Predict the structure.
Amino acid sequence: MELSHIEHIGIAVKSLDDAIGYYEKILGLKCYAIEEVKDQQVKTAFFKIGQTKLELLESTSPDGPVAKFIEKKGEGIHHIAFATDKIEDALEEVKQEGIRVIDAHPRKGAEGLTIAFLHPKSTFGVLTELCESKNRKG
Ligand code: CMX
């Protein structure tokens, strides 16, 4: 498959407000969007640096995937998202290679991207996301 760049890095935090303060005041980045993704039980805050985004993730429910992650592992890097122009093809390819997928079919994620997650137990411990922008051709 052809991946073009790291679209974003997802970072699990207990408090979006506290973490935004750090990224803005200490690192000098600007939060340009806050979005709730209801079906994932998260509130997200986005920063851009170069071609890559940082996505802070705060759980909106104690049973959500981000709350469970923080409970087990603490705050920190939660997933890495790679950009592709052809998510259907990329997902088919990983499935054929026997990689365990969380999303058998691409679905809608934050920022209107089409996304699919690969299971960390199949990807050397890193929850991996494939993303395609709806504005891209292909
Ligand atoms: N990174 C690495 N390992 C992870 C992980 C992560 N983010 N989340 C869970 N794991 C590990 C667990 O620690 C566990 O390992 P051990 O068995 O060694 O303890 C293993 O994966 C399986 O965990 P589980 O308890 O069986 O499964 P969970 O209920 O925790 O679910 C996962 C794990 C990845 C399937 C689930 O979190 C998921 O479906 N994630 C994709 C969706 C998501 O994360 N959404 C939030 C972000 C949405 C967005 O960006 O918009």
Observations:
- The chain has a mean pLDDT of 95.
- Residues 10, 37, 40, 42, 44, 55, 57, 65-66, 68-69, 72, 78-79, 102, 109-110, 117, 119-121, 125, 127 surround carboxymethyldethia coenzyme *A (CB under 6 Å).
